[in-house]
Amino acid sequence: MYSSQSTTPDNGSMTPTSRAPETEERTRDRVLQAVLKQGPVSAAELGESLGFTPAAVRRHLDTLSKQGLVEVKLVANQAGGAGRPARRYVLSQRGQTKLGNDYLDIATEALTDLAHVAGEDAVRQFAARRFAAMEKKYQPIVDAAGDDVAARADALAGALADDGFVGYTRDIGANLPEALQGIQLCQGHCPIQGLAGEFDAFCDEETKIFARLLGVDVRRLSTLASGGHVCTTHVPVGRHKTPQRAEKRTRIKINKQERPR
């Protein structure tokens, strides 16, 4: 039996360690960050990735839920939809705000005043300038991926992930005709979520630069600002898919298909 000095009761770790136990608050922040990066995610999946016991994870999730920082999404069983829906955790709007910009309220108030003085078009021009800088930064990264749309989308997702947007892609429509196949470009975090909720121009301008970077018409399916648990942009790839890339993405899809939708 391990002594109390050799275990880490505060974070519910499954293995003994010699380092000092984490504080409850720090451990809870780790769980919150994991939900941000992996959500929608189950308690069991969180425990496995963090090295915590299921009981410890559920205790922290219960606390975060009571604080209004995470919420439960019921996801249909992927095996034909049979059985009870699975419980998956995602960040709530309050949780997104907690991890966002502390100056968001000031920015929202300033843009509201700008709209009153100069009109809504002035806000749109501001948003366009902001995302023009993002486009300029991401253009060489996406171009380095070549002409294949799916490869460019993967590169864009990686750039978004590096900048804290928790970007990733997932294949859809594998059983559909090739012309209808696509991928979803997802963002699990938006540092200006509250701002985008007040001003549609920010989501609109971001969607436009995604289309320009990828070279195809894209469609925004959901946004964090409008209440979704992830920002999702549909990218059509079937008609632009190279044979080599099609084979590679088939292998990737096998690895990603267990990710909750």
From TrEMBL:
CDD domains: HTH_ARSR. One of its GO terms (molecular function) is DNA-binding transcription factor activity. Residues 24-84 form the HTH deoR-type domain. InterPro entries: ArsR-like_HTH, DeoR_HTH, WH-like_DNA-bd_sf, WH_DNA-bd_sf. PROSITE patterns: HTH_DEOR_2. Residues 1-28, 239-261 are annotated as: Disordered. Residues 244-261 have a biased composition (Basic and acidic residues). The keyword DNA repair does not apply. Residues 1-20 have a biased composition (Polar residues). Keywords: Transcription, Transcription regulation. This is ArsR family transcriptional regulator.
